[in-house]
Amino acid sequence: MLALWETQAPEPIVQEALMLRLLSAGCVALALAFIAAGCGGDDDDGDASGEAFKVGFMYIGPPGDAGWTFQHDEARKFLESELAGDVETTFLDSVPEANSGPALEQLISQGNKMIFATSFGYGDTVIQKAQQQSDVVFEHATGFQRADNVSTYFVQHWEPSFLLGVIAGRMTKSNQLGYVGSFPIPEVIRDVNSFTLGAQSVNPQAMVKMVFINTWFDPPKEKQAAKGLIDAGADVLFGIEDSASVLQEAQANNVYAATWNSDMSRFGPKAFLSAVVLNWGDHYVDRVQAAIDDSWESEDYWGTLEEGTVSLAPYGESVPEEVRAEVDEKLEGFKDGSFNPFVGPISDQTGNVRFEEGHEVTFEEFVEWNWFVEGVEGTLPS
Asked: What's the pLDDT score for residue 172?
């Protein structure tokens, strides 16, 4: 069932003027015209009519998932706070990717002139609706299809995921790490590859067992996958999924875990190592303000550690000081460009060299990564 939440725009301020009764009919008409023009010229908020600019959000999960949707909803609230009085937001949550058309139509029918579609699988529907609604602009998270009124946005998550791999490589005792992946798409593949390369950079014996659960948000399924990895010998877990279930299962079994989307340390403080944290607020404000100013243009945005759109969560209580110092140094190197560990030779899981000695992995190669690096134990659909 779709859940709907919306705010109400404030009533416009009504200005009153006193008129002299002895003015002639012509003077009265002239004075009224002057007052009306003056009132309209003073209103610089919202659109030309003085109404708030309406922005809709479409979520794959519930805002209470503590992960992906939670972070987007926090950013929506930040948007409302930063542009108070100028914007009115609405969201629909738990919208299935396979049937997102009715939800988009609902948001459009409510008068939203800008819509953030926050899941990869919404892409085809977004493009279809954008062709039908040229007066609405769309922002598609993690997408790759663009149009004149469709932008895409995501983050360069491979850098913080590499750093989490460094932590995992230092913390493991079994040299067996576990990764719970949502879907076998480049977003997840490049993430587990980066995590694996990070772990092997400090612990060449580290291996990563990979499982896919084929859903973004399903706490019981996430928990079951985590338990299976633990039973197979993994003592540090990571992955892209939307709840805190993997971390909770790690704590219940006295192993470690890092999380994606947000700082979930409160759900398993002893097991928690750190997290990839997504900070959408500033980007949302910038994009909505551009739409209000009529300066919005289609773009493919990838937020960075330097910008702060993606960050590393504070370390968990179990992470030793020497590991924190090591990761902090690499983090600063990523930010200022002095550290790039994504350099060949890099082989796939069969041992074939894919990136030759000295080759620096390009942005395009990260985005299109569709094979596992050596050290990942798992299979991809053919």
From this structure: 98
**Residues 28-59 pLDDT 10s:** 333 333 333 333 333 344 455 578 999 999 99
Sign of CA dihedral 113, 114, 118, 120: positive
Question: Per this entry, what is the length of the chain?
Answer: 382
Distance CA 166, CA 195 (A): 8
* Residue listed under structure tokens 């919005």: 296
Sign, Cα dihedral of 152, 158, 163, 169 = positive
The answer to whether residues 330 and 209 belong to one domain is yes
| Residue-number span of the structural domain to which 325 is assigned | 158-270+311-377
Is 344 found in the same domain as 241? yes
E strand map for 23-124: 53-58, 87-93, 114-117
User: What pLDDT shows up at residue 382?
Assistant: 81
Tell me: do 237 and 91 sit in the same domain: no
Helix (H) or strand (E) holding 201: helix 186-202
pTM of the model: 0.86
Residue 200 within a domain: yes
Distance in angstroms (rounded) separating the CA atoms of residues 164 and 362: 21
Closest to 264 in 3D by CA, of 282, 239, 228, 284? 239
Please name the helix (run of DSSP H) or strand (run of DSSP E) that holds residue 301, with its range, or none: strand 300-303
DSSP 245-283: HHHHHHHHTT-EEEEEES--GGG-TTTEEEEEEE--HHH
**Residue 74 to residue 181: CA distance in whole angstroms:** 24
Give the contacts of 141 (CB within 8 A, at least 6 positions apart).
72, 116, 117, 118, 119, 120, 152, 153, 154
Q: Which residue has the tokens 């990564």?
A: 369
Q: Judge whether 26 lies within some domain.
A: no
CB contact set of 211 (below 8 Å; sequence gap of 6+): 178, 179, 180, 181, 225, 228, 229, 378
